[in-house]
Amino acid sequence: MMCGIIGCISGENCYEKLLSSLARLEYRGYDSAGVCLLSEEGVLRVRKKKGYVSNLAGKRLAGGAGIGHTRWATHGKPSDENAHPHLCGKFALVHNGIIENYAALKEELLAAGEVFLSETDSEVVVRLLSHAYRGDFLGAVREVCARLSGSYALAVLCSDFPGEIVAARKGSPLVAGAAKGALYVCSDVPALCGEAEFLCPVEDGEFVVLSDAVRIYDAQGRQVERAFSRVKSEQRAASVAEGTFMQSEIAQIPRALRDTLAGLEDTDFAPCARALRGAKRVWCAACGTAYHAALSFADLLAEEGFCDVFCSTSSEFRYKTPLIGEKDVFVAVSQSGETADTLEAARLAKSRGAYLIGITNVADSSLSRLVHFNIAMRAGPEIAVAATKSYNAQLVCLFYLAAQMLFFKRGAVPGWAGEMVSLPEKAEECFRTFGQMSALAAKLRAAKGMFFLGRNADLPTALEGALKVREIACLFAEGYPAGELKHGSLALVEEGFPVLALSTREALFSKTENALAEVRARGAYAVLLSQSEEVLSRSCADCKVLLPQVCAPLMPVLSVLPLQYFACRMSLLRGMDPDKPRNLAKSVTVE
Known about the structure:
This protein is an alpha/beta fold. It has 18 helices and 25 strands. Strands 3-2-4-1-10-9-11-15 form an 8-stranded antiparallel sheet, with helices on one face. Helix 6 (253-265) packs antiparallel against helix 13 (423-430) and helix 13 (423-430) packs parallel to helix 18.
């Protein structure tokens, strides 16, 4: 499960702290939520419901120790019964991850007479705990974890130990936190923003005990010394200025670009100079929106003739037996730094001797600790499930990295690198297109599907525009190479079918116009986005959107902005919540 978990020990307001932390975890995407409080008398009190965290509101549950959960269903449909926490005997448990051997363990428990109340793999774990328990809380958790295959982040209560929580991690993110009068364990940093003052990452195979202090133990039960760091300003809680988080986050793109560029200027790339200078090949792996950013990076390096550049979705990279090895550079891109497939791809690349560079938006993430050199985006907290400002910031980080690679390889920075400083101002200019894109969304809200077309460097942007419409407007949309339509997909174009095309490369202006002519001849409603007034004036498109002027290599940072806003407006006009698209989670921490 791609879930959010929280555990809290607090002398006062533990219930309220759990609910506020769960509300901050809503960005992960979820279908049910629940909490369990343990009183000083050893009584476990549970409240869990299908639907939103707000459904948990009601009479305050008493207790100074508690655990909470937002569930994204994998094993079993969304329901009150399948919601966490799960209870058995003296134990209550919340779980993020997937227990791969749960079926065999469940058969064992059924044979022993256990009766299951849910369809989840997580209930197997709490019933195993009840069987293994002989008075040693941490010992029982360690014993059970040794039997689990797959991934997990667990937080557990035991009625014999009021005021104590035991947590464990393998393959799923976990962080401990501390504040005056409260201790925490959580699956994600943002849930603790505004609550915890200090944070400490938990490594794979480690166990955490919260009681009067935070104690961390290794797999052998030996206590581990671990330093806490103060919560950084970029980790602090986000707020909505108006409307939805997605609308606010799109409005924050210029600021995110300024902050990211400032951070890049302060980043010392000397530690990776040798690896970049001697790079034989460059590999990129990412998922979803981050993959589209990686495609733009690969296009830019290929255009500069840097070296062989290979780009793959992380899930495919792992199973293609790639020829990556020493003297290769592997670039992993993940907004959260916890994307399971990207982490596994990075581990594979590292095992084969590649030099790893990570690009993340979350400090102290699993990816940032795994790679040899991490580049920090400074987009700030992003709460909406669908990425917007983090995508623009990823592009800036990747393009800046490309400029550094070229500098170390050739001794000179490419000319376009100097124009990056203008991107925040140009992004603000892009906002002028929003009125036109809003009107376009109103016109197309009833469409049954649409194409986004692009050639060369415009193709990743077309792919991202289509993904945004699929994610938050729940409408079929396909990003497609403009020259490929006639090889099959033109069959779907009929009267009124929307086709949105990007044309930002001068050498390909006429080629993209040819594709628009083809779809218009078949009745399509054609939209063209370009920075060239001349191209727009000559185009046969029904709707023409003028983009700001910037050098061609940097256009992907800007040309996606109108498409992000268009998708957001489509979502709202179709009666949907762009912040919480159905079936999706922001931080995909399972395969």
